[in-house]
């Protein structure tokens, strides 16, 4: 359409208005507009429909019946191959800006190379306004001289197997069958990139070291494995396991791959086959327990033990335990203690027969509690010996220690280091002149919601709380209420503007009281106010802790059930829901 407009020396938008074929409608791929344009040119509408991106739903475009997300497809930067454009000019008698033709596959972000010339695509122009951006003849006029003098030119390199396969699938050309052919093209391409990025760790390369112009190598690396199917993928994932200790969690080993499949594409059914392959790998080789998550779902029951986790839970010496497990052919003798896994349930009788009660020192050392913390927890009844008034010091059951830890970690998030207000229970209690038991009981009864497992530490030392929330909930020097900002963080609403809006519109009660630090009167969420909130509303964070799963999976379930965030008056209150609606939708 832009080339037709150029004949009359007008813009594509003005030309569309003159012939009553809106340029915006053509850009959306609307069938009636494409048919009208075809009639105007004396060409069947199908000629334009084949390569014109067509709107499908609210967030996708279809090119040759392959769906791609609209956001990366229609960026302000327009890429192309100057060699192709130069051939257009040299093979035509038309003015250069009318001779050049834009190829639609240049829009697809998975494409970075012209296969014909084996040259990298380059940015031809950058324009924010859409009708100007895709008025190609107007833009070609501006770059024609640079195309001809070859000052625009991409680097030369050979096409990869992935790039050839992608082009053949997009165009419908014949190609060697791969496992990926059974799945949609965009999802298959994204998975290749995510997998290839993860595999770079086997060469000692982190994702942060990948230059923007080198992402094509990630696609190829992932494709070279994924083309052969699920078993080949799991073999490579198994190699990656040993790049970190399991206690750091899968995200530490496969950061972008994990985030992509667990969160970014969790609602896209096209990624389900890849999620299942990855989930199966984690289920079969990772010793996940409470405090961990499996692709966004909190783990509540341990399926696999490693020698290390079993020794920690039972108090059995790891060397002795390993010998027994090897003799029973329950573990792979070539793997280290952290990765030598076995079925937890199948080994339960054997482990139970080996468990010995331990001394207090052995107990608190096993769970990294620290002597002073241990004494305080015993004094306050948080930890109790299994035998009382016995004539032995071995009265502590390691299983009780593990149960104590697991109860604290239900619904906890994983952090790689303590920052942005996170403190260990011991440190937070010390700062506020509280006893650790006060914090622990507040976690158990739900007054403290933000709990994390710090992957840098083991045992009790790894359990962290958000200090400001603890201060608001328990510290004696603060009001017996929470500020609106802290209550927002506690319930997981994200932005304080949402809670302020709920208060202003009369949906949430508050209590006006004097701030002891500033002396100013301000609104707080008092005990009764909080109770009223919890009685009527819930949030994804509250649900996550209550259900033992992640907010992402709960959000997906609520959307599937037709439950939408609370907004009776049209205001945006964030992800807060009526409790009665949620309970009905999530009822077992």
Summarize the structure in words:
- This protein is α+β, with helices and mostly antiparallel strands and 588 residues long.
- 48% of the residues lie in helices and 11% in strands.
- The protein is built from 32 helices and 20 strands.
- The strands form 8 sheets. The protein has a 4-stranded mixed β-sheet. Strands 1-2-3 form a 3-stranded antiparallel β-sheet. A 3-stranded antiparallel β-sheet has the order 16-18-17.
- Strand 5 and strand 6 form a beta hairpin.
- Helix 12 packs antiparallel against helix 16 and helix 24 crosses helix 25.
Alpha carbon gap, first and last residue: 56 Å
Q: Count every beta strand, where a strand is a DSSP E run of 2 or more residues.
A: 20
Shape: globular
**Biggest sheet features:** 4 strands, mixed
Beta-sheet strand percentage?
Answer: 5-15%
Structural class: alpha+beta
Secondary structure tally, helices: 32
Low-confidence parts, pLDDT < 50 over ≥5 residues?
none
Helix content: 40-55%
Spatial strand sequence of the major β-sheet: 12-14-15-13
Radius of gyration: 30 Å
Mean pLDDT: 89
SSE layout:
Blueprint lengths: L1 H6 L4 H8 L3 H5 L3 H11 L3 H5 L4 E3 L3 E4 L2 E4 H4 L3 E4 L1 H9 L5 H4 L13 E2 L4 E2 L1 E5 L3 H4 L2 H13 L12 H11 L13 H15 L15 H12 L3 H12 L8 H4 L1 H10 L7 H14 L7 E2 L2 E2 L5 E3 H8 L3 H10 L13 E3 H11 L5 H7 L4 H9 L18 H12 L3 E3 L6 E3 H8 L3 H9 L6 E4 L8 E4 H8 L6 E3 H8 L4 H9 L6 E4 L6 E6 H10 E3 H8 L3 H10 L15 E3 H7 L3
Parallel strand pairs: 12-14
Antiparallel strand pairs: 1-2, 2-3, 4-7, 5-6, 8-9, 10-11, 13-15, 14-15, 16-18, 17-18, 19-20
């Amino acid at each position: 359409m832009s080339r037709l407009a150029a004949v009359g020396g007008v813009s594509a938008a003005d030309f569309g208005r003159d012939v009553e074929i809106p340029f915006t409608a053509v850009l959306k791929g609307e069938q009636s507009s494409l048919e009208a344009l075809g009639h105007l040119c004396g060409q069947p509408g199908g000629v334009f429909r084949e390569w014109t991106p067509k709107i499908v739903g609210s967030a996708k475009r279809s090119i040759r019946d392959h769906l791609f997300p609209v956001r990366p497809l229609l960026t302000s930067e327009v890429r192309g191959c100057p060699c192709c454009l130069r051939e257009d000019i040299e093979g035509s008698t038309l003015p250069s800006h009318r001779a050049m033709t834009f190829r639609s596959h240049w829009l697809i972000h998975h494409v970075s190379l012209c296969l014909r010339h084996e040259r990298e695509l380059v940015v031809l122009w950058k324009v924010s306004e859409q009708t100007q951006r895709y008025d190609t003849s107007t833009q070609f006029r501006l770059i024609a001289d640079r195309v001809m003098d070859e000052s625009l030119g991409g680097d030369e390199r050979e096409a990869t197997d992935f790039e050839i396969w992608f082009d053949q699938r997009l165009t419908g050309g014949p190609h060697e069958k791969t496992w990926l052919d059974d799945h949609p093209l965009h999802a298959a391409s994204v998975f290749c990139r995510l997998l290839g990025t993860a595999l770079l760790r086997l060469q000692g390369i982190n994702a942060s070291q990948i230059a923007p112009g080198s992402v094509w190598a990630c696609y190829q690396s992932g494709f070279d494995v994924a083309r052969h199917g699920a078993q080949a993928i799991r073999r490579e994932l198994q190699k990656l396991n040993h790049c970190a200790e399991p206690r750091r969690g899968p995200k530490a080993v496969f950061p972008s791959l994990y985030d992509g499949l667990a969160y970014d594409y969790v609602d896209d059914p096209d990624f389900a086959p890849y999620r299942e392959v990855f989930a199966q790998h984690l289920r079969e080789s990772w010793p996940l327990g409470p405090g961990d998550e499996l692709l966004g779902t909190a783990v509540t029951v341990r399926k696999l033990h490693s020698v290390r986790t079993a020794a920690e839970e039972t108090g059995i010496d790891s060397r002795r335990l390993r010998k027994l497990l090897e003799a029973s052919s329950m573990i792979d003798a070539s793997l280290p203690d952290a990765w030598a896994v076995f079925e937890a349930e199948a080994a339960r009788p054997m482990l139970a027969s080996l468990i010995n009660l331990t001394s207090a020192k052995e107990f608190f050392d096993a769970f990294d509690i620290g002597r002073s913390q241990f004494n305080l927890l015993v004094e306050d009844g948080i930890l109790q010996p299994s035998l009382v008034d016995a004539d032995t010091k071995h009265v502590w059951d390691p299983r009780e220690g593990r149960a104590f830890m697991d109860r604290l970690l239900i619904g906890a998030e994983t952090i790689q280091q303590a920052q942005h207000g996170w403190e260990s229970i011991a440190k937070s209690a010390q700062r506020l002149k509280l006893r650790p038991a006060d914090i622990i009981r507040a976690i158990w009864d739900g007054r403290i919601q933000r709990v994390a497992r710090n992957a840098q530490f083991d045992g009790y030392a790894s359990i962290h709380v958000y200090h400001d929330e603890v201060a608001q909930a328990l510290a004696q020097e603060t009001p017996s209420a929470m500020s609106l900002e802290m209550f927002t963080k506690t319930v997981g609403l994200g932005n304080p503007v949402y809670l302020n809006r709920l208060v202003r519109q009369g949906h949430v009660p508050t209590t006006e009281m004097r701030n002891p630090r500033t002396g100013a009167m301000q609104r707080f969420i008092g005990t009764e106010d909080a109770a009223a909130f919890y009685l009527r509303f819930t949030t994804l964070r509250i649900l996550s802790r209550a259900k033992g799963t992640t907010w992402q999976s709960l959000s997906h379930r609520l959307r599937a059930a037709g439950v939408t965030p609370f907004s009776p008056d049209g205001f945006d209150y964030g992800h807060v829901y009526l409790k009665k609606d949620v309970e009905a939708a999530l009822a077992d």
